[in-house]
C-alpha cells in the first residue's frame, strides 16, 4: 500500500480497520485534557474497561462466600487457572495441557531452569543473547553460580557484529555448533526488548536440540504480539509476562509453556508444591508428590485469584479477536508508523535511524529509533505534549503501536508532534 502523511489518509485507514472498535474498550490517560497517544504497551498495556467487572466478581464472591468461593463461586477459585488453557493455547500455539498461569515471569523462568538446566561436567554451557533484558541476565548468572559454576565459563553470549544493531541468525547457529557437546541450554528472548528484533525460534530450537540441549524462550515481548507455534516448533519450555501486550495490569501473573513430551517424565527435576499435585487427590493431603500431567504440574502455590482476574478478562478479549487479525493490523500500523518517521525525518532534515529490522517477519509491534542529533529534551517534549513513549540511553525511543488500541490517526498526530518538538529547539 502507498501511504500518505495526511490526517485524511490516516482517518481512511481507521475507517477500514476491523479492530477499531476495540479502542473504546480501553482506558487512556490524559495530558492537558486530551487523550494521550500511547506507545508503551511493550512496557505496560492499557487497562481494558471490562477488567473491573472480573475483579469485582472475585471481590463479591469473597465477601459473600469467603472460603467457600474456592468451590461455589461462579468461577470457582480452585480451578480458576483452567479457564486460561484454551485461549492461551491459541495465543502461543500450544496444546491446552501445555500452558498454565502462575507467579511472575522471572520466578517462572527460575522454576523452569530447575527442570531444564542440569549441568554436568561435560555439558554445562548456556547460550543467550547479548543485551538481553537485565532480569534474564541476572537470573542466568545466579542459576550458573547456584550450580557452582562461574558465569564467564558457562555463559556464551551471542553478540552483534560491529556496526550492526541486530543479531544474525547464522551467528546464532554457528555459536550452537561451536559450543557443541558442552551446550546444556539455549535461552533467548523471543523478541529483543531493546531493538524489537524477532528471532527465528523454529530454526534456533531445532539447532539447539540437535546439539543435545534444551531450548527455552522468554516471551515477555512475544506473547500476544507475534505468531507463535510453540508446540509445532518443539520448544521445550517458555514463559511470558501478561502485563505488556496482554494488558493484565502492573506486575501481574505470568504464563508458562512446557511441551507435552516432558509431561510424563517424572524423573525431570522440579520444585514441587501443593497446587501442582494431582488435582483429584489434592485435598487428601498425601505426603508424596504426584504431579499433574501437564504444565499445571509445575505449579507450586495456591493461585492469586485477584491477579488472575484481569488476565482472564484480557485473554478472553484476545480469544474474541484472534491472533491473525491482530497480526494483520500490527503489520500495517507498524509500517505506517515507519513511513511517518521517515517523512518527518525528511521534512526536518534530521537523521533518525530505525534499529528494528525492516522485514516484517523479523519485527513485531515495536520500532526502536536512534534520534541522532536529538537529546532527552525531545523525549520530554513528547511526554509533555501527550505522547507516552519510552526512552533508553543513550538516545533511543521505543515506539509500540499496539493494534488493540492504537489508531492510524495516532500515528499521523504523533508525527506532527514529533516535528514540532524538533523544530522547537532549532
UniProtKB/TrEMBL annotation:
<comment type="pathway">
    <text>Cofactor biosynthesis; NAD(+) biosynthesis; quinolinate from L-kynurenine: step 2/3.</text>
</comment>
<feature type="modified residue" description="N6-(pyridoxal phosphate)lysine">
    <location>
        <position position="244"/>
    </location>
</feature>
<feature type="binding site">
    <location>
        <position position="106"/>
    </location>
    <ligand>
        <name>pyridoxal 5'-phosphate</name>
    </ligand>
</feature>
<dbReference type="GO" id="GO:0043420">
    <property type="term" value="P:anthranilate metabolic process"/>
</dbReference>
<dbReference type="GO" id="GO:0019441">
    <property type="term" value="P:L-tryptophan catabolic process to kynurenine"/>
</dbReference>
<dbReference type="Pfam" id="PF00266">
    <property type="entry name" value="Aminotran_5"/>
</dbReference>
<dbReference type="GO" id="GO:0030170">
    <property type="term" value="F:pyridoxal phosphate binding"/>
</dbReference>
<comment type="similarity">
    <text>Belongs to the kynureninase family.</text>
</comment>
<dbReference type="InterPro" id="IPR015424">
    <property type="entry name" value="PyrdxlP-dep_Trfase"/>
</dbReference>
<dbReference type="InterPro" id="IPR015421">
    <property type="entry name" value="PyrdxlP-dep_Trfase_major"/>
</dbReference>
<dbReference type="GO" id="GO:0009435">
    <property type="term" value="P:NAD+ biosynthetic process"/>
</dbReference>
<keyword id="KW-0663">Pyridoxal phosphate</keyword>
<keyword id="KW-0662">Pyridine nucleotide biosynthesis</keyword>
<dbReference type="GO" id="GO:0097053">
    <property type="term" value="P:L-kynurenine catabolic process"/>
</dbReference>
<feature type="binding site">
    <location>
        <position position="302"/>
    </location>
    <ligand>
        <name>pyridoxal 5'-phosphate</name>
    </ligand>
</feature>
<keyword id="KW-0378">Hydrolase</keyword>
<comment type="pathway">
    <text>Amino-acid degradation; L-kynurenine degradation; L-alanine and anthranilate from L-kynurenine: step 1/1.</text>
</comment>
<feature type="binding site">
    <location>
        <position position="218"/>
    </location>
    <ligand>
        <name>pyridoxal 5'-phosphate</name>
    </ligand>
</feature>
<dbReference type="InterPro" id="IPR015422">
    <property type="entry name" value="PyrdxlP-dep_Trfase_small"/>
</dbReference>
<dbReference type="GO" id="GO:0030429">
    <property type="term" value="F:kynureninase activity"/>
</dbReference>
<feature type="domain" description="Aminotransferase class V">
    <location>
        <begin position="172"/>
        <end position="266"/>
    </location>
</feature>
<dbReference type="GO" id="GO:0005737">
    <property type="term" value="C:cytoplasm"/>
</dbReference>
<dbReference type="GO" id="GO:0019805">
    <property type="term" value="P:quinolinate biosynthetic process"/>
</dbReference>
<dbReference type="InterPro" id="IPR000192">
    <property type="entry name" value="Aminotrans_V_dom"/>
</dbReference>
<protein>
    <recommendedName>
        <fullName>Kynureninase</fullName>
        <ecNumber>3.7.1.3</ecNumber>
    </recommendedName>
</protein>
<comment type="subunit">
    <text>Homodimer.</text>
</comment>
<dbReference type="Pfam" id="PF22580">
    <property type="entry name" value="KYNU_C"/>
</dbReference>
<feature type="binding site">
    <location>
        <position position="221"/>
    </location>
    <ligand>
        <name>pyridoxal 5'-phosphate</name>
    </ligand>
</feature>
<feature type="binding site">
    <location>
        <position position="105"/>
    </location>
    <ligand>
        <name>pyridoxal 5'-phosphate</name>
    </ligand>
</feature>
<feature type="binding site">
    <location>
        <position position="274"/>
    </location>
    <ligand>
        <name>pyridoxal 5'-phosphate</name>
    </ligand>
</feature>
<dbReference type="InterPro" id="IPR010111">
    <property type="entry name" value="Kynureninase"/>
</dbReference>
<feature type="binding site">
    <location>
        <position position="243"/>
    </location>
    <ligand>
        <name>pyridoxal 5'-phosphate</name>
    </ligand>
</feature>
<feature type="binding site">
    <location>
        <begin position="133"/>
        <end position="136"/>
    </location>
    <ligand>
        <name>pyridoxal 5'-phosphate</name>
    </ligand>
</feature>
<comment type="function">
    <text>Catalyzes the cleavage of L-kynurenine (L-Kyn) and L-3-hydroxykynurenine (L-3OHKyn) into anthranilic acid (AA) and 3-hydroxyanthranilic acid (3-OHAA), respectively.</text>
</comment>
Amino acid at each position: 500500500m502507498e501511504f500518505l502523511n495526511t490526517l485524511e489518509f490516516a482517518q481512511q485507514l481507521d475507517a477500514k480497520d476491523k479492530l477499531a472498535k476495540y479502542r473504546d474498550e480501553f482506558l487512556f490517560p490524559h495530558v492537558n485534557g486530551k487523550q494521550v497517544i500511547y506507545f508503551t504497551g511493550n512496557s505496560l498495556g492499557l487497562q481494558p474497561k471490562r477488567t473491573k467487572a472480573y475483579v469485582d466478581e472475585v471481590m463479591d464472591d469473597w465477601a459473600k462466600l469467603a472460603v467457600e468461593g474456592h468451590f461455589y463461586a461462579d468461577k470457582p477459585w480452585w480451578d480458576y487457572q483452567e479457564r486460561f488453557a484454551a485461549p492461551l493455547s491459541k495465543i502461543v500455539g500450544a496444546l491446552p495441557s501445555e500452558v498454565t498461569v502462575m507467579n511472575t515471569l522471572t520466578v517462572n523462568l527460575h522454576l523452569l531452569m530447575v527442570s531444564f538446566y542440569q549441568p554436568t561436567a561435560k555439558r554445562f554451557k548456556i547460550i543467550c543473547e547479548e543485551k538481553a533484558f537485565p532480569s534474564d541476565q541476572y537470573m542466568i548468572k545466579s542459576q550458573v553460580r547456584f550450580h557452582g559454576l562461574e558465569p564467564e565459563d558457562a555463559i556464551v553470549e551471542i553478540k552483534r557484529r560491529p556496526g550492526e544493531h541486530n543479531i544474525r541468525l547464522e551467528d546464532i547457529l554457528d555459536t550452537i555448533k561451536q559450543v557443541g557437546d558442552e551446550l546444556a541450554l539455549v535461552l533467548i528472548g523471543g523478541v529483543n526488548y531493546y531493538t524489537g528484533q524477532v528471532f527465528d525460534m523454529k530454526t534456533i530450537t531445532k539447532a539447539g536440540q540437535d546439539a543435545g540441549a534444551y531450548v527455552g524462550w522468554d516471551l515477555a515481548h512475544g506473547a500476544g504480539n507475534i505468531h507463535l507455534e510453540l508446540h509445532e516448533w518443539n520448544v521445550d519450555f517458555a514463559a511470558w509476562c501478561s502485563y505488556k501486550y496482554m494488558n493484565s495490569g502492573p506486575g501481574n501473573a505470568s504464563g508458562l509453556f512446557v511441551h507435552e513430551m516432558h509431561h510424563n517424565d517424572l524423573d525431570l527435576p522440579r520444585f514441587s508444591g501443593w497446587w501442582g499435585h494431582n488435582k483429584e487427590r489434592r485435598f487428601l493431603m498425601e505426603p508424596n508428590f504426584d504431579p499433574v500431567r501437564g504444565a499445571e504440574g509445575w505449579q507450586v502455590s495456591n493461585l492469586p485469584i485477584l491477579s488472575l482476574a484481569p488476565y482472564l478478562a484480557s485473554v478472553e478479549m484476545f480469544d474474541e479477536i484472534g491472533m491473525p487479525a491482530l497480526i494483520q493490523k500490527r503489520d500495517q500500523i507498524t509500517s505506517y508508523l515507519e513511513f511517518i518517521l521517515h517523512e518527518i525525518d525528511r521534512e526536518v532534515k534530521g537523521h533518525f535511524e530505525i534499529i528494528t529490522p525492516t522485514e516484517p517477519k523479523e519485527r513485531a509491534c515495536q520500532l526502536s529509533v536512534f534520534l541522532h542529533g536529538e537529546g532527552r529534551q525531545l523525549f520530554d517534549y513528547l511526554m509533555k505534549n501527550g505522547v507516552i513513549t519510552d526512552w533508553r540511553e543513550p538516545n533511543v525511543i521505543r515506539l509500540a503501536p499496539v493494534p488493540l488500541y492504537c489508531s492510524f490517526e495516532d500515528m499521523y498526530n504523533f508525527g506532527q508532534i514529533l516535528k514540532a518538538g524538533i523544530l522547537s529547539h532549532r
